[in-house]
Amino acid sequence: MDTESYVRRENYNHEYCHKLVSINGKNYTLSSEGFVFDYKGKPFNLTKGGDDYYYIDGVVVDILVAKTFIGAVGSNDVVHHLDHNKHNNTVDNLIIVPKSDYTEYITNYNMLIDQGKLTDAKLNRLIKKLIKVSRQYNVEDRVI
Predict the structure, then answer these.
(1) How far apart are CA 61 and CA 78, in angstroms?
(2) Closest CA to 38 of 22, 54, 52
(3) Is the separation of the CB atoms in 140 and 74 below 8 Å?
(4) What is the domain partition of the chain in residue ranges?
């Protein structure tokens, strides 16, 4: 599936794909690939929560990557992994969607998976519908 035709995100220079972030008063370097480094530049060991997401000092890494490289994540938003892999926190795998749209999308996705009926074409149609509805809510182009 070619998600580039659907997902628009802020252009970032791969040469400068590391940004300094501060979490609970501690400084870290965050990469657009979803890796976190301590202040000495060593890879930081992330904590895996009971929900199977990675955390750093109580902050979910996918949300941190989305906020840092894509844009604001509001309280009514969800950071969605396009490949449905919670551990793949690369910026190219993340989109920000309103919770209401996400609920409909994930319900349809899970139903199709359960029935063994999910195909690339059907997934593309679901993503197009999700983006169309998101645009009705004036979601910025750089987010979706």
Answers:
(1) 13
(2) 22
(3) no
(4) 3-136
* Angstrom distance (rounded) from CA 141 to CA 86: 24
Tokens 């994540």 belong to 73
Q: Model confidence over 70-107: pLDDT tens digits? A: 888 889 888 988 888 899 999 888 888 888 888 777 77
Q: Write down the CATH number for the domain with range 3-136.
A: 3.90.75.20
Distance CA 81, CA 87 (A): 9
Q: For residue 113, what are its two tokens? A: 């998976």
pLDDT tens digits, one per residue of 9-34: 444 444 447 888 988 899 999 998 89
CA distance 72 to 98: 12
* Rounded Cα distance, 58 and 77, in Å: 18
Neighbours of 45 (CB within 10 A): 9
In the chain, at which residue ranges do the beta strands (DSSP E only) sit? 18-23, 26-31, 36-37, 47-48, 54-56, 59-60, 77-81, 94-98
Q: How far is Cα 122 from Cα 135, in angstroms, rounded to an integer?
A: 20
Spatial separation of the C-alpha atoms in residues 104 and 99, rounded to whole Å = 9
